[in-house]
Amino acid sequence: MIVVLKNGVSKARQDQLIEWFKSMDLGVHVSVGESSTVLGLIGDTTKVDLELVESLDIVDSAKRVSERFKRCNRKFHPEDTVVEVGDVKIGAGNFAMIAGPCSVESEEQIITVARAVKASGAQILRGGAFKPRTSPYDFQGLGGEGIKLLLAAKKDTGLPIVTEIMSAADLPLFEEVDILQVGARNMQNFDLLKELGTIDKPILLKRGLANTLQELLMSAEYIMASGNERVILCERGIRTYSDYTRNTLDLAAVPMLHELTHLPVIVDPSHATGIARLVPPMSLAAAAAGADGLIIEVHNDPMHALCDGAQSLRPEEFDALARKVTAVREALK
Amino acid sequence: MIVVLKNGVSKARQDQLIEWFKSMDLGVHVSVGESSTVLGLIGDTTKVDLELVESLDIVDSAKRVSERFKRCNRKFHPEDTVVEVGDVKIGAGNFAMIAGPCSVESEEQIITVARAVKASGAQILRGGAFKPRTSPYDFQGLGGEGIKLLLAAKKDTGLPIVTEIMSAADLPLFEEVDILQVGARNMQNFDLLKELGTIDKPILLKRGLANTLQELLMSAEYIMASGNERVILCERGIRTYSDYTRNTLDLAAVPMLHELTHLPVIVDPSHATGIARLVPPMSLAAAAAGADGLIIEVHNDPMHALCDGAQSLRPEEFDALARKVTAVREALK
Amino acid sequence: MIVVLKNGVSKARQDQLIEWFKSMDLGVHVSVGESSTVLGLIGDTTKVDLELVESLDIVDSAKRVSERFKRCNRKFHPEDTVVEVGDVKIGAGNFAMIAGPCSVESEEQIITVARAVKASGAQILRGGAFKPRTSPYDFQGLGGEGIKLLLAAKKDTGLPIVTEIMSAADLPLFEEVDILQVGARNMQNFDLLKELGTIDKPILLKRGLANTLQELLMSAEYIMASGNERVILCERGIRTYSDYTRNTLDLAAVPMLHELTHLPVIVDPSHATGIARLVPPMSLAAAAAGADGLIIEVHNDPMHALCDGAQSLRPEEFDALARKVTAVREALK
Amino acid sequence: MIVVLKNGVSKARQDQLIEWFKSMDLGVHVSVGESSTVLGLIGDTTKVDLELVESLDIVDSAKRVSERFKRCNRKFHPEDTVVEVGDVKIGAGNFAMIAGPCSVESEEQIITVARAVKASGAQILRGGAFKPRTSPYDFQGLGGEGIKLLLAAKKDTGLPIVTEIMSAADLPLFEEVDILQVGARNMQNFDLLKELGTIDKPILLKRGLANTLQELLMSAEYIMASGNERVILCERGIRTYSDYTRNTLDLAAVPMLHELTHLPVIVDPSHATGIARLVPPMSLAAAAAGADGLIIEVHNDPMHALCDGAQSLRPEEFDALARKVTAVREALK
């Protein structure tokens, strides 16, 4: 950590600060410049509170030189992590197509969609059983019953399943679930992250609506520091002033995360845009930007054709998209 | 809800949509205009998914006429809610000054600060026992031990206490806590909100970093719909592009929330700015804008004078501020 | 326009509002619902101030049904516009690769880069002569002299040139420039836009840092309403809380703009990210998302190899990228 | 400037970088730490491009120690600047109340409003003659004719006037205007700023919708570096995801700007919120936060009572507000 002192700081106060750093087992390298004095902290500065240091009245500014994330840091693990679930691999060139309905509604629905997306090349089935909803009056998902239906679809198609967990208290219901998803709203539900660090299943961790990449990685670090290293990151759009899409898909996060971490990075264009007709171009863009996979909402609901325009694709739209994604990936090999 | 159809929609598809609404027990009033047809939905539209409707390919746009929050809606409860805790009242002209350290560290610390802030007029003591931290390597708070220290300070000073709860599993530890705080990161931890709706204590609900007022009110609604109507809202800054303060304090939220809801609204200038010297002007501004209270970080740490510049005020600074806040409130009576 | 009145508005005030709308030559269709009255305005509502209407104390909410942009609106011009400059076409499947240095520095520099990017397939040369800089102490560009150097490069290579204009007073210097660029900071410099509407050259209009697509289109409308219909839109990143890239590239704007307008839409990944190594993946993503072209910074500066890491690509990097862009576009045909 | 090099950078490349800095007449202080090497640049680094340095592939990060703004920097001018216009003083404890209609519409209107706001204690009259409008089809203001009407109101009441200038070409029309306003959309119209630096009138510079305080100060610096030191800064709300007000008023900018600069800082609550009933609480908050003045929209339009709810206050509302602002300021003396 580099700490720049303000001009005209007294020697006494400067020494007091240096002593404080030393009391944290840090070495301090003092560099006196023309207009300011700079302290270089040597040692494990991960425990130093940057905001506290910056707020000291004798400090002009401070800057971390080393990142605070260790286990997910590419510097310490240069090789890409490959997360395996059944026969499916994600990361290091292995691209995973994950698809399925927003909510699990019935056995017929989930099995129909599962068969359809499998036929189009999807390797993992998604479906919401526990649904985080802004309003308490909205449909909250089928819960444990929804998971049973997902497992029925898994049995039918052989596809591994991923579904969201909202509370550690529900963990027993997820015993046969292949991948547990942490939603954007729970990205910093640290108690949940710690619990998920103790289990032996891959975790799909979605970026929060207003979280930095650094914060996303620190949340991955919570899981990994608790013992579970199988984390898949997911960019799903951030909240900005821009209002024509539900969120703003931040695709540059894909190559940037690949630089910072060895964990696989997938993209959710359905939630990012909230508009079905934007899902194909954003899926192709994500593939071109180097994503390790896509998670896409697909529904099959001939009875309610009204939903056609929602953020979910119809199976035939998903099929066409899957082909194009493959074509883009082939072109860039 | 008002639904505007696109130009040139076929009669058949329009009728299909109308049937769908009717199947939800809604009346549909069709108004055919020159360039577009507008449907007015009559009845309980709280269960209609606005985003789904907007995304239908035959719909140009849709708009809710009635808000989805009921229990916290001023329309249905015109009178201000007064939340009482011990002898302290919050709301309807009752202003609450809440103060205390960021983290509870020791019995001596918390009692010293509690006595100091009480002497300056604070009516409620705050202090962090369970701390949500971005990094798993940061100090996570003293947990249950911290709550015991807070209770010792309560016993010593008579001040009711407020502290953050991060997981419903910890509820037994909060039995003697007066007000339970839900932090910004957990504002949409719906399982936690539901649990807090079943207890008989006031809940201090902080606005999430990137949440709208509508979402804040829907989260209050989660608590209230589960049976607990004693909710205090707290504006604590939102995340924006602006980087000189930790967050951007959105003070217009105070009068706006007062218009939308009958619940009391307080302001946290310490977390909003992250800079101690901005806490006094922002506290005065909050009081002038009509806030029902302030929650301010105060520390008393002669041994670590280094922290002086942090977001916490020293007791003497808090004392001076409390006088000015009173002066502003008097001036506006 | 749909105007929803508040509950309990008196007949007198409602009639007063209706008269006001009628005084603007609008028809008013009144629809009385169970809990609210809705007015449908018929006629040319482009001149009705939506914000004013929304702010009336008897109005609950208001919503425009028809867009306010006319000339750039795809509804009224379903066919893609193709902007031609020399032999180069942009739009309707014609993809333009625009490349060149951030600033024009010397004749040798600009000609070297121009030859290099032409050899790699660029069809248009970019280069800054008038530079908008945050600080008055930064290099402001070579101005008119820079334009002369660009024209020398044009003569040498045959490439048409695009460069930024910051003030209408400079127009005489741009007589031989092929495309005039309006930078993000001037997107709502309406006096400049009006002037550019009177000339007979294509205008490359960049989206402002915090502007909506609606505002971008209204700025295009300023140019078109003044008589110049040759406008090329450019997405170049928006300002968000996210800080690891200079801006957040909003790629969903590409398909969304294609839906709203017939004008061509290109992408500037260099300014959007500010980081050279993110330019290739974001260029490929833009091509996959359906952009009509790219504008990329390329420098050739063996003397100052230090700049290698900046947002500019080296010619050999640009060459490799151009091949991949072509491959992605081929794959998606 | 502090430059932190990446680990493992070769001596040759490091020396090359150092030579480059030295070629800019900078001293370079090298500090070799355990895990990184830090360069301290000594001398005038205002011309060093921070973003360029940060983007070099051998650089981990860089940080400016000294601000780039000089003339508006409080470090070099510790005393508050007082801007005088006629008998009115702004800054250093002198509070200016500026009020008037959004647009100048007629002589009767502007004189009526001017007399009313003067009676309530306003010291300066505002009114729009040249109006920046998002749409080319919206009313663009009366232009030069509007300025004549403002001057008539000035003659009638003795109030100095402030009105917006959008193009340097219009300067001759502003000869008798007392204060020239630069609107938010033109905050980085650098050619306009340079021109305004050559005239002898105070400039009211509004913060752009998405601009940092640093950028606002650099724009003030453009005016001051060109010779005009009479700049008044104005916070008028920033664009965020939050959508219940037109913009988010960033009141913490007031004390923060007072720390960074000696220039006066006023607040525009009318444009910040866009909602008349939020103007009083935000005006009081601004006064409590230490603003040097307010600029408030007031209209007097008995014929169009419909506008009552707009962002403009009625004269009687302004009168009540002015009294309260005075009360708050008295309370804080």
Brief synopsis:
Chain A is of the alpha/beta class. Chain A has helices at 11-22, 50-55, 107-119, 144-157, 190-196, 213-225, 253-260, 269-273, 279-288, 315-331, and strands spanning 2-5, 27-32, 37-42, 59-63, 83-85, 88-90, 96-100, 124-126, 161-164, 179-182, 203-206, 231-235, 265-267, 293-297. Chain A folds into 2 domains: 2-63, Alpha-Beta Plaits, CATH 3.30.70.1140; 83-331, TIM Barrel, CATH 3.20.20.70.
Largest interface: A-B, 58 and 57 residues
Strand order of the largest sheet of chain A: 13-12-11-10-9-8-7-14
The sequence of SSEs of chain A as H and E is: EHEEHEEEEHEHEEHEHEHEHHEH
**Shape by Cα distribution of chain A:** elongated
Helix content of chain A: 25-40%
Determine the N-to-C terminus distance of chain A.
Answer: 40 Å
CATH class of the largest domain in chain A: Alpha Beta
Biggest β-sheet of chain A, characterized? 8 strands, parallel
Number of extended strands of chain A = 14
| Tally of alpha and pi helices of chain A | 10
User: Please, what is the average pLDDT of chain A?
Assistant: 91
The CATH superfamily name of the largest domain in chain A is Aldolase class I
Q: Explain this structure to me?
A:
Four copies of one chain form a homotetramer. Chain A is of the alpha/beta class and 333 residues long. The first copy, chain A, has two domains: 2-63, Phospho-2-dehydro-3-deoxyheptonate aldolase, domain 1 (Alpha-Beta Plaits, 2-Layer Sandwich); 83-331, TIM Barrel. Chain A has ten helices and 14 strands. Chain A has helices at 11-22, 50-55, 107-119, 144-157, 190-196, 213-225, 253-260, 269-273, 279-288, 315-331, and strands at 2-5, 27-32, 37-42, 59-63, 83-85, 88-90, 96-100, 124-126, 161-164, 179-182, 203-206, 231-235, 265-267, 293-297. In chain A, strands 13-12-11-10-9-8-7-14 form an eight-stranded parallel sheet. Chain A has a four-stranded antiparallel sheet with strand order 2-3-1-4. In chain A, strands 5-6 form a two-stranded antiparallel ribbon. In chain A, α7 links the parallel β12 (231-235) and β13. In chain A, α3 (107-119) crosses α4 and α9 (279-288) packs parallel to α10. The longest helix of chain A is centred in the C-terminal third of the chain and has 17 residues, at 315-331. Chain A is elongated. The model of chain A is unreliable at 305-309 (pLDDT under 50). Chains A and B meet through α1, α2, α5 and α6 of A and α1, α2, α5 and α6 of B.
